[in-house]
Amino acid sequence: MRAFIWLVLGVLIPASGLARGVHDPSQVWPGYREAQSAQPLVYHLLGSTDFDGGQRRSFILQSQQWPHATGSASWRHRVELLQPDVPQPGPALLVINNGVIHGSDGKPPRAPDDLPMDVLETLVRTLGMAVVSIADVPSQAISLPGDGRLRVEDDLAAATWRRYLDEPATHAHWPLHVPMAEAAIRALDLADQELPADLRPSYIATGASKRAWASWLLPLVDERISHLAPFAIDMHWQALLPHIRQIHAGRWPIALRPYFEHGITGMIGDDAFAGLMEIVDPYTYLVGPLATRLALPKLLVNASGDDFFPPDAARFYLDALPGQTTLRVAPNSDHGGIRRFVLESLAPALHRWRRGGALPQVQAHWQADQGVLQVRGLESERPQRAVMWQAHNARGRDFRHACGIDYVARPLSLGDSQVLEVGLEVPAQGWTATFVELHYADGLVATTPVQVLPQDRFPLQPPAEGAGACRLVPEVSLSGPATEPATEPAAGSRGARKAGEAAWAARSVLARSRSVAAGPPSPGG
Questions:
Q1: Second-level CATH architecture of 4-354
Q2: Where does the record place Low complexity bias (predicted)?
Q3: pTM of model > 0.85
């Protein structure tokens, strides 16, 4: 049994998170989950509504008190339980949804729209499955202790990361994905109380962006999760972030601005950042006792023109993932545009999984000496058709959809071979991004990872900027040059806390002054 520290008020806190000099990042999330499991489940029913094919019951759930077990406001969430009129056997669906339950700066609360109600009702009606949707993950807007500013989405996530980086042992469970994942598990506890057991033998977890990220943490600590379907999220940040910066010739895409302004991008090589990733990055759990928990069947759906992540980000983690893993790259989609692909991607995958079936396993190998992309895995299940999607940027390696980069489709002949070979030219100028899309009889779509050529050549100049999400983090800001902060104390140093508090205040002023220029956070963030 893991050791615990009892506080005066009787709240159980995992020793791995708070004991002086005994900070083990890999145990923070399991320890937080174990501590929270001792807390009572608090929720109440708001009402019920019938819809075509089922019934929906609405609840308010109090998932936890965070960041402090006492003195902090309870996280509140809108939870929907959808039951089919004609149930079919198989796992239920857990949806980790977005939304703003606490309005801020004169803005009202916002309903979830990553996976809206019409999509959930369609899944219930057509598949005969129960759906559990927890919204307001995180329970935003939130003002962190000593901050005085209400934060949401990436600004909130980056602020919590910075608190951890400044004092890892004291702020062990502050990284936002920890309480986000905990909220999802409490929604499962609610569902187990309210749904018949035969409607929930296990759960398929899904979400988009940060909520997809949180879904990866669930099977590490909860065996009720049997499958994963994350949308618009990548992993292995310690390799991915330097790659992003190299692509942009030392700059950062505007979507990562909160992480720059909170000083996160300037600490990528630090030990504290490595510890942060041991807590929140699923990739770090692939080495250690929890690795087998991620061997469950997975469908990963990513955007070809994401605002945050380059299209070839999967090269840093896909081959390392254990178990059955299927990738779909959504063509001509930005980060928020992934919502257009949710229903058409989920429905056939859920249909297969709920009947004990598997998704196709597609592998791609770039044969540089032959100029050929080999697509394998066709022998296990023959696709009906194949399409090559390709985009070219003559001026940079930036393939953000917001910058006007479009992928063009070209049908491919499958022939009779068990290996599909696609000839690709390495451009003499600029870069080309290519992936192959395979369509199956039941509507399922799987793809190869995106191949960017030339693979190991990077631009010397930042990409041209446009409007909106096509911008870069400014080189010069109100707080000084946009080079990485060099004067902030190292995490854990004696002056880090006081300097950090001053920096948080300065960043709050800076962020407020930029709010008009920056616009709202990317949808789903």
A1: 3-Layer(aba) Sandwich (3.40)
A2: 481-491
A3: yes
